[in-house]
Amino acid sequence: MIAEIQCLPTPAGNEARPYAVIEAAIAAIERSGLRTEVGALGTTVEGPADAVWAAVRAAHEACLRAGAERVVTIVKVAETREGGPTIDALTGRYRRSAGDEQRG
Questions:
Q1: What pTM, to 2 d.p., does this model score?
Q2: Which of 3, 24, 26, 85 matches a 20 to 30 Å C-alpha distance to 17?
C-alpha cells in the first residue's frame, strides 16, 4: 500500500521555525521505518497496510503534540489485492537524475 499524507496544522510553526509542526509530522512518519518520500505538498509512505495507517495517525497526532491548535490531514491511498502499488512503479519512469534537473 502507498499513501500520500498532507497535514494542514494551524499554526504550522512559529516565527523562528515556520514549519516546526510539519517537521514533527514528517519525523513521525520517518520513525515508522517505512519507505518515505517527502514532497512539496505531502509525504508518500509505502508499506504494509496496517503500518501505513499507523503512520498516518502518527503524523496527525504529532501535529497536535507539536503545538498545533487544530489539524486537518488529507490522505490519498492506493492499494491492490496484492498490496501494491509501489512508489517506484507509479513514479519511477518520471524521475530525473541530478544532471537532468540542470538541463531543464
A1: 0.88
A2: 3
